[in-house]
């Protein structure tokens, strides 16, 4: 048997952390002394703590870890671990892209480059969000040349400004951001359009792509995610037949209000860009990711 201090020293966890795990029923002492309240833990308790530490390193939440510890269905465990592997792989790819962007910026600074800055128009009704985007984009070599809090004002600014990139929030007060993207795309086939929204629904994302958006970023996001979307090479559009198939898929009704994570959104963009169809591995893998994430 181990006292809590011994268990803390063995696992490297703070005693407060161990007590918290007890409080949320992730861990139970093997024996509690009725006279002094001292807790004693067995080897099985220690193994359970090491398992919690290991699973936290994989990025599982404590709620998920509780489910895994109670799960006796190997098929369910394989499904959860398989999904986590795919998620981590996508995050690794995103990290690689971010590192390449940072390396490019660092090299430019070291070489005292005089490279021109991409000009950006921000259309978002949140002044705080525009401020954050301006600060982050400026640090990555962009120049924000215009801001608008409404769609009509944004379109008018685009008419007079020479913008290489437009970042559009979908939830604008006067009109749908998708309609703004469609209008701007009709005005300039070459501009790079990144859509942003806290409601990353499948139908909303597909509608954005059909309107001419190049990328879709779900809020809240790390600035590196927006920069990566801005840096990616502009597409020649997305495959209309694939987008139509997604909207007609019976599974969309089951997930109509489900907000996708950024890695799953990136998988959706890949499916639409490459023109995968129902039955293709990538198409079915996307829906499998959605079903696993659905509460």
TrEMBL record:
InterPro entries given in the database record: CheY-like_superfamily, DNA-bd_dom_put_sf, MerR-type_HTH_dom, Sig_transdc_resp-reg_receiver, ST_Response_Regulator
Flavoprotein listed as a keyword: no
One protein family per Pfam: MerR_1
Domain Response regulatory: 119-234
All residue ranges annotated as the HTH merR-type domain in the record: 1-71
PANTHER family for this protein: TWO-COMPONENT RESPONSE REGULATOR, TWO-COMPONENT RESPONSE REGULATOR ARR22
Name of the protein in its database record: Response regulator
Biological source species: Paenibacillus terricola
